[in-house]
Design brief:
Blueprint lengths: L7 H7 L6 H8 L12 E6 L11 H14 L3 E6 L5 H4 L6 H20 L4 E6 L4 H12 L3 E5 L6 E3 L2 E3 L1 H13 L4 H10 L12 H11 L15 H20 L3 H4 L2 H14 L4 H13 L5 H8 L16 H6 L2 H11 L15 H4 L27 E6 L2 E8 L7 E9 L2 H9 L8 E4 L14 H9 L7 E4 L11 E6 L16 E5 L4 E4 L3 H10 L10 H9 L14
Parallel strand pairs: 1-2, 1-3, 3-4, 9-10, 10-11, 11-12
Antiparallel strand pairs: 5-6, 7-8, 8-12, 9-13, 13-14
Length: about 575
């Protein structure tokens, strides 16, 4: 890098005028020389923590990035962001903070980069909300940026079976059902997570890292690397160099985060069987980038994209196996050849997506079973269906892979919290044919829109995944599958009809017709609405209280900067 490549906003802040002497003095205290003051100064948004194995390896990657920047003639400034471990907080009130942390991360990245007039930012993340949180901040600022994923965990093993964190949640349901004993439950617990890295299936973390690669905000192959492998550090160094080139060329996030890029990301999510949370997060990132993406775009794209990657939770394989089979570039190449991607989208390297995929083989290696032929898919159309009806006039998200028949009509079993629902499921008070309703868990009502992995895993563990429906204004983990519908909007706390459901009411979930319907006539619903009183807020102060006041509908991404 040369002096001329330094971003003008940094130069104006640091090098111009005698009034900047105090600014330079602060930098000199950190060892900056006269020569350093003319170099690009790049932020490293470091999500390192020992809160979760997802983020434990990030500090080493931050140090690798620092070295790469220094070797390339730039200076870097490291700052931290928070992380909530979904896997550890799942099923507790702590999970209320998970989605909230997405906004905290976005605010932290924006605050640090803008306050210090950094020329660019390399964001390092591992756990679920690190990715969308960082990208929301990046899209808001539109300063040159790249995302580096900390990497996925390697699978655990027990008796020849690959395990993930979800295996432990499902084992709880199996223990309740009596299909395993305490000793087996303990073995699953002790073997499910063998080291550092984010949860190993195509759950939320791996889904979001994959979408960033598809949108050109991360380098090829980076989103499926294992956290413990040496290539992850080398990829971090290469990402640092790519960012400096982007600064020099003036490549900015909103150049990449276009409507076409979001369509590519949604297409990729459908192909790999990704998390329901991708709907929520991509809508929020698009909002930050000023892109007019809607929940209906997901349904439009779903109808024409097959699911041809056999990945957990509803499939057989983990993401390290996808990486060995060619990773996200291989999937993208097959989608591109099928005419399902926009190849003219630019990427962080300056090359278009089509140019990036030019040397990727047309087909994956023979003998692997992760990536199926695109004309012989697992499912002919995408797995994330957008359902509407009187229970979800704004929309709801159903994940319809891994079940034999994606429709059910049955009596409602209504619960006003996750804890109440979990007690009933574990207590075997929910049976085949029931439709469980978990409400007041939405963005405002929770607040924080908790993930319902514990109840859904308990249902799966009891062998009821095809026999029990579940709807909620909360969210689901990327590890969830079964007859489940989340993100019901409007939520109960906003007066949505889900607040008016009573025990015994008939509910229909029908993914074929994309319908979520309560079989109660309009007159009865009007009478119930007239008698309905909203519950007092679960939080009125602190970060949860602020979030509840600001957050908007899940159907628009649950964003906090344009709520009514």
């Amino acid at each position: 890098m040369t002096d001329q490549t330094t971003n003008k906003r940094r130069s104006a802040t640091i090098t111009e005028g005698t009034a900047r002497a105090p600014n330079r003095a602060m930098l000199r205290a950190m060892g900056y020389t006269d020569a350093d003051l003319t170099k690009p100064i790049v932020g490293i948004a470091n999500g390192y923590s020992t809160v979760t194995p997802c983020n434990m390896g990030l500090n080493a990657l931050a140090e690798r990035a620092e070295t790469a920047f220094e070797d390339s003639g730039a200076k870097s400034q490291v700052f931290g962001t928070v992380t909530v471990s979904d896997g550890i907080s799942m099923g507790t009130t702590g999970m209320k903070y998970s989605l909230v942390s997405r906004e905290v991360i976005a605010d932290a990245v924006e605050t640090a980069v803008q306050a210090e007039s950094m020329d660019g930012v390399l964001a390092l993340g591992g756990c679920d909300k690190n990715m969308p949180g960082a990208m929301i901040g990046i899209a808001r600022m539109n300063v040159p940026a790249i995302f580096v994923y900390g990497g996925t965990i390697k699978p655990g093993h027990l008796d020849g079976e690959d395990l993930t964190l979800v295996s432990a949640f499902e084992a709880v349901g199996q223990r309740v059902a009596g299909t395993i004993d305490d000793a087996r439950l303990k073995k699953v617990e002790c073997n499910a997570c063998p080291g550092i890295g984010s949860c190993g299936g195509m759950f939320t973390a791996n889904t979001m890292s994959s979408t960033f690669e598809a949108m050109g905000m991360s380098l090829p192959y980076s989103s499926t690397m294992a956290a413990e492998d040496a290539e992850k550090a080398e990829n971090t160094a290469a990402s640092a160099q790519a960012l400096l080139t982007a600064i020099e060329k003036g490549i900015r996030p909103r150049d990449l985060l276009t409507f076409k890029a979001f369509e590519n990301a949604i297409t990729l999510v459908m192909a790999v069987g990704g998390s329901t949370n991708a709907v929520l997060h991509l809508l929020a990132i698009a909002h930050a980038a000023g892109v007019d993406l809607s929940i209906d775009d997901f349904e439009r794209i779903r109808g024409k994209v097959p699911v041809f990657c056999d990945l957990k939770p509803s499939g057989r394989h983990v993401v390290t196996e996808l990486h060995a089979a060619g990773g996200i570039p291989q999937v993208l190449k097959m989608l591109y050849n099928a005419g399902l991607l926009h190849g003219d989208c630019p990427t962080i390297t300056g090359a278009t997506l089509a140019e990036t995929l030019a040397d990727v083989p047309d087909e994956p290696p023979s003998g692997q079973t992760v990536i199926h032929p695109i004309d012989k898919p697992l499912y002919a159309s995408g797995h994330l269906a957008i359902l509407k009806g009187n229970l979800a006039t704004e929309g709801a998200v159903a994940k319809i892979t891994g079940i034999k028949e994606p429709s059910i009509t049955g009596p409602a079993r209504v619960f006003d919290s996750e804890e109440d629902a979990m007690s009933a499921i574990v207590g075997e008070q929910v049976g085949a044919g029931d439709v469980v309703v978990i409400r007041y868990e939405g963005p405002k009502g929770g607040p924080g829109m908790r993930e319902m992995l514990s109840p859904t895993s308990a249902i799966v563990g009891r062998g009821l995944s095809d026999k029990v429906g579940l709807i909620t204004d909360g969210r689901f983990s990327g590890g969830t599958y079964g007859m489940v519908v989340g993100h019901v909007a409007p939520e109960a706390a906003a007066g949505g009809d889900i607040a008016l459901v009573e025990d015994g009411d008939t509910i229909t979930i029908d993914a074929h017709q994309r319908l979520l319907q309560l079989a109660v006539d309009d007159e009865t619903l009007a009478r119930r609405r007239a008698a309905w009183q909203n519950r007092p807020g679960n939080a009125t102060r602190g970060v949860l209280g602020k979030y509840a006041k600001l957050v908007g509908s899940a159907a628009s991404g649950a964003v906090t900067d344009d709520a009514d």
